[in-house]
Design goal:
This protein has 438 residues and is mostly helical. The chain contains 22 helices and no strands. Helix 2 crosses helix 3.
Length: 438
């Protein structure tokens, strides 16, 4: 079979299955069965399909994914993260949009600890949003920063999606984790600047109500007790990678140990919270690994059928400039992000994007960070951005999806500004990894 009919068969069948409402993992598996029967020789192909699924999950590079998820779940279910957010709230005062500022600062700190976008948004939303709305904050300035900051967990280590992207694409995982720090900080700074400017121009958005007045050590103590010790977890993870003392897998394990010790130190680690953390970690990890097993085999079938090479020859034959091709990749991901979850987006595009980038000698670390930022943007793009629905789940019933969409829109624009800056100036991505030798 020629490459174009093969490509149409595989992608078209997958789109049909997903359009019918079949879960992503089962859509991939169903297409894999069809592809194995057509392109891998029937029964022998199905046997090879099973072997490929097993082999795709035995890679040691996938181990950090459940470990980073467990790290965040421990902090979430033991209540340690909630105490840290309260401590940040006590520290920040007398600034326009105070609680919105708190959500960005606390969210960035928690992002450096959890690696989970969903957990980040859920914690911030459940702790801060009710009080913000009660104090008369406009829903847009209350919900927008929480949703935007939740996505930063995808960039700042520990990032489970960064580990997944690195393991599937062959990009250095440690390099990706380090390279995401500066873009994440850029986004936080833009969010803070936007909130302050908007609240100065329109003070009615965030009424400056009197808060509990704490002074001196009374104000600083919660931050020292509940936030600074947690930052040691980030130091353990990133520091061990930078200094070459640990691989990403080993640093993830150290992070889990550090989070458990922190929870135990605050006397919050109970058998019940530990069991809940392990159970939730298992649920999320199984879902991700199931999709990985199916999608890796899908990529292999695409290659074996000739569809990947045929499409690459077609694209390279067009003679398009490299920046145009990268911009096209970004636009495809932005479009898919309106309708798909992030793991599915990676699974569908990596078999095409990575070989194309390698053939054109595109810096892989730069491309990887650009892809991660697009993944972050897609978390809040209507109509199916996952963070939008997490926010709907924690927001009061009277908050409509239209209000949530409106709250997310300005911050999507700010994220696209960062994406454009990194596109135009790749050094913003590559500088920090080059400094630390990653």
């Amino acid at each position: 079979m020629e490459w174009l009919p093969a490509l149409c068969l595989l992608l078209g069948t997958m789109v049909i299955f997903m359009g019918m409402g079949l879960p992503v993992a089962f859509s991939f598996l169903s297409v894999n069965v069809i592809g194995a029967a057509v392109f891998l020789g029937g029964a022998p192909g199905l046997s090879q399909l099973a072997r490929n699924c097993v082999a795709s999950l035995t890679s040691f590079t996938l181990v950090p994914i459940p470990l980073f998820i467990l790290l965040g779940e421990i902090l979430f279910h033991t209540g340690v993260a909630t105490r840290a957010i309260d401590a940040v709230e006590k520290l920040i005062s007398r600034v326009p949009g105070r609680l919105s500022i708190v959500s960005v600062v606390a969210g960035t700190i928690f992002a450096s600890l959890s690696g989970s976008t969903i957990a980040n948004t859920a914690v911030l939303g459940s702790v801060l949003l009710p009080n913000m709305l009660k104090q008369g904050y406009h829903p847009s300035i209350a919900m927008g920063p929480i949703m935007a900051t939740g996505g930063i967990a995808m960039l700042i280590p520990p990032s489970a999606l960064g580990v997944l992207l690195g393991s599937l694409s062959g990009i250095s995982i440690s390099g990706l984790l380090i390279a995401g720090i500066l873009p994440g900080m850029m986004m936080s700074a833009l969010f803070l600047g936007y909130i302050i400017i908007r609240c100065v121009l329109n003070p009615a958005l965030a009424p400056a109500l009197d808060s509990e007045r704490l002074r001196g050590w009374q104000r600083l103590r919660p931050f020292v007790v509940y936030v600074l010790p947690l930052m040691s977890i980030f130091a353990v993870i990133v520091g061990s990678i930078i200094l070459g003392w640990a691989t990403p897998t080993e640093s993830a394990a150290l992070g889990c140990v550090a989070s458990a010790l922190a929870a135990a130190g605050y006397r919050s680690l109970t058998l019940r919270s530990l069991k809940t953390s392990l159970t939730e970690t298992a649920k999320i990890s199984v879902m991700i690994l199931f999709i990985i097993a199916a999608s890796v085999t899908f990529s292999q079938i695409l290659t074996f059928s000739g569809a990947t090479n045929g499409l690459l020859r077609l694209i390279t034959g067009l003679g398009l400039a490299t920046p145009v091709l990268i911009a096209g990749m970004i636009l495809v991901l932005l479009f898919l992000g309106c309708f798909m979850d992030q793991v599915s987006m990676l699974m569908i595009t990596i078999p095409f994007f990575i070989p194309l980038a390698q053939s054109l000698n595109i810096p892989m670390l730069w491309l990887g960070v650009l892809m991660l930022i697009v993944m972050e943007v897609s978390f809040t793009t209507p109509p199916f951005g996952l963070i939008l629905y997490v926010m709907k789940g924690v927001a009061p019933r009277e908050i409509t999806m239209r209000q949530i969409y409106a709250a997310a829109a300005p911050f999507i624009g700010l994220e696209l500004v960062v994406l454009a800056a990194l596109f135009l100036f790749p050094q913003l991505v590559t500088w920090l990894p080059s400094v630390v030798g990653r």
